[in-house]
Amino acid sequence: EDKVVQSPLSLVVHEGDTVTLNCSYEVTNFRSLLWYKQEKKAPTFLFMLTSSGIEKKSGRLSSILDKKELFSILNITATQTGDSAVYLCAFGSGNTGKLIFGQGTTLQVKP
Amino acid sequence: NAGVMQNPRHLVRRRGQEARLRCSPMKGHSHVYWYRQLPEEGLKFMVYLQKENIIDESGMPKERFSAEFPKEGPSILRIQQVVRGDSAAYFCASSPFSADSGNTIYFGEGSWLTVV
Fold it and tell me: Quick one: CA torsion of A70, A29, B27, B12, rounded to 10 degrees?
């Protein structure tokens, strides 16, 4: 059965810290891995990764995929309280939006 | 450029009543997905629709749940004879018909259903 496992499940840091969130997957027909940020409402799209070793970057956030070891990481540098959210990892197969989500990592950034 | 629009945002129903959740996709998007998020759980795929067609309903419970995306109007997720276990956040997402978009989907704000 396809699955996505995220770790840690929760994390508390202080502003300015750097965090690394992990996502491992076991899938039969991988096409892409996606990261979303959820702040008690709509999950908002962060990154879609399809190729190994190519880092995607957006401001203080970056992500990379390792298709050989079947994992991805999401890095957030110089964290701010506004980064507090649940970060969701999901994989997609085929060419549709049917995604398998992990359970999420809850990040709390304290002032 | 409006995003995915869902209504109602919050809905309270008594056990046995019906719940109807509506979703209008982003402009230019022809694919609609419904996901459910139970308390303390991750998002789970329910159904994938295009206009007038159900493409994949493998995540839908076999009974009481149905979905449609008519030629005109929003997509509707219908839950008949609701039970307490149906209490959850129901998210709609949409994507364009484009090979370049891959698996990327964009979510609405969600509809929070509470069954009392």
Answer: -80
Mean pLDDT of B67-89: 96
Specify whether the CB–CB gap between B95 and A25 falls below 8 A: no
Asked if residue B93 has pLDDT above 70, the reply is: yes
Place of tokens 């998210």: B91
Amino acid at B57: E
If contacts are CB pairs under 8 Å, which of residues 60-99 in chain B contact chain A? Answer: 91, 93-95, 99
Contacts of A23 in chain B (CB under 8 A): none
Q: Is A84 exposed, middle or buried (0-12, 13-18, 19+ CB in 10 A)?
A: middle
Question: Which residues lie closer than 8 Å to B17 by C-beta, 6 or more apart?
Answer: B81, B82
pLDDT at B98: 59
How far is C-alpha B114 from the geometric centre of its chain's CA atoms?
15
